[in-house]
Amino acid sequence: MGMAAESQFHVLAVDDSIIDRKLIERLLKTSSYQVTTVDSGSKALKFLGLHEDGATNPNTSSVSPNNHQEVEVNLVITDYCMPGMTGYDLLKKIKESSSLKNIPVVIMSSENVPSRISRCLEEGAEEFFLKPVRLSDLNKLGPHMLKTKFKDHNQKREKQEEKAAFQSPKRQEQEEQHQHQQQLLQQQSNNNKRKDIEEGLSPERTRPRYSGITAAV
Amino acid sequence: MDIANQLQRQFMDYSTSLHREGFVDDQFTQLQKLQDENSPDFVVEVASLFFEDCEKLINNMARALEQQQGVDFKQVDASVHQLKGSSSSIGAMRVKNVCIAFRSFCEAQNREGCLRCLQQVTHEYSLLKNKLQTLFRLEKQILAAGGSIPIVE
């Protein structure tokens, strides 16, 4: 249970409708994700440690070796139509932020507007779900979150190696040991998670982006 | 005769009629499936939120349509859009369908049409509320009798 924080994915859900927030929270929890819900894009950015003007919260700067945010968020799922900051605006702000751009973002909308869908996907959204969202839609989230864990991990490794070039050998050795331990933990938890997720995945792993759309009948 | 069984039968018949008459659609069934030991009152909670939301939005629409100086149809439409979303999320099919017609009238800036829809949506909402309250009452009775709530598709 000590590895709980590492082995459970944390999703930030953004929706101005209280009913939809309740629904997405239940869907995500049923899928074994940790969930935080907020009712606006600006609250989402605050939670992610980013101020609206793009400045990063000094408390969550990149000095911390593990997280570049206060609380690690593995995926953001947001409604498109929201007053003030739309889901699209939020998506843009996340993708424009050096500290947050690797977080996968999924857009939800009650309206099937092809131009809206392509705009979001072009801006970097991983998936576009039509509301009401189903459990089967959420099965598509796993690969995106896994991918990021590996990417993050590799980026940290690279940073570590850069730093190592400027460090004394002893310090380097200590850091490498720490890194190695982290790798083992990561692999362990990833193996567990991967197994759980694979059971829920459909056979086709790579798919064109537009398959995220289910037509509203 | 087992009371629980009797009640379950009643529940299933009632559920089937709600679906057949279009009060609820498959999304409502999905909500029922999401209810489990971890979230035993999920459906009742969502329904309560929906009813509160409905009342608030219907009031907003009524106020906006009352404006003698000129109706702000964008404002009405915004409320209808929200109601359409919530009703879709909970599976309230008849309410949702009225909202679809309602939006067309908003777009056409047709005050009479909007007022008719407002009346209809208010009617559908109160019908649904009664129906669901009956359904939830049956559920409580089943549980009290020691039975479990069947899922009707």
From TrEMBL, chain A:
Task: Write down the PROSITE patterns for this protein, in alphabetical order.
Answer: RESPONSE_REGULATORY (PS50110)
List the CDD domains: REC_typeA_ARR
Keyword Transcription in record:
yes
Q: Which UniProt keywords apply?
A: Cytokinin signaling pathway, Nucleus, Phosphoprotein, Transcription, Transcription regulation, Two-component regulatory system
**Into which family does the record put it?**
Belongs to the ARR family. Type-A subfamily.
The task this protein performs is described as: Functions as a response regulator involved in His-to-Asp phosphorelay signal transduction system. Phosphorylation of the Asp residue in the receiver domain activates the ability of the protein to promote the transcription of target genes. Type-A response regulators seem to act as negative regulators of the cytokinin signaling.
- Stated name of the protein: Two-component response regulator ARR9-like
Automatic annotation (TrEMBL), chain B:
Q: Does the keyword Phosphoprotein apply?
A: yes
Question: What Pfam families does the annotation carry?
Answer: Hpt
The protein's matches in Gene3D superfamilies, at most eight in alphabetical order, are given as:
HPT domain (1.20.120.160)
For the biological process aspect of GO, one term held by this record is: cytokinin-activated signaling pathway
**GO terms, molecular function:** histidine phosphotransfer kinase activity; protein histidine kinase binding
Cellular localization per UniProt: Cytoplasm, Cytosol; Nucleus
Taking the first listed entry, what is the main subcellular location of this protein, grouped into a coarse class? cytoplasm
Is Methyltransferase tagged as a keyword? no
SUPFAM superfamilies (UniProt xref) = Histidine-containing phosphotransfer domain, HPT domain (SSF47226)
Which InterPro entries does this one have?
AHP1-5/YPD1 (IPR045871), HPT_dom_sf (IPR036641), Sig_transdc_His_kin_Hpt_dom (IPR008207)
Ranges in coiled-coil conformation: none
**Phosphohistidine-modified residues are where?**
H81
Keywords (A to Z) from UniProt = Acetylation, Cytokinin signaling pathway, Cytoplasm, Nucleus, Phosphoprotein, Two-component regulatory system
What's the entry's take on its domains? Histidine-containing phosphotransfer domain (HPt) contains an active histidine that mediates the phosphotransfer.
Q: What does this protein do?
A: Functions as a two-component phosphorelay mediators between cytokinin sensor histidine kinases and response regulators (B-type ARRs). Plays an important role in propagating cytokinin signal transduction.
- Protein name as catalogued: Histidine-containing phosphotransfer protein
Q: Name its species.
A: Durio zibethinus
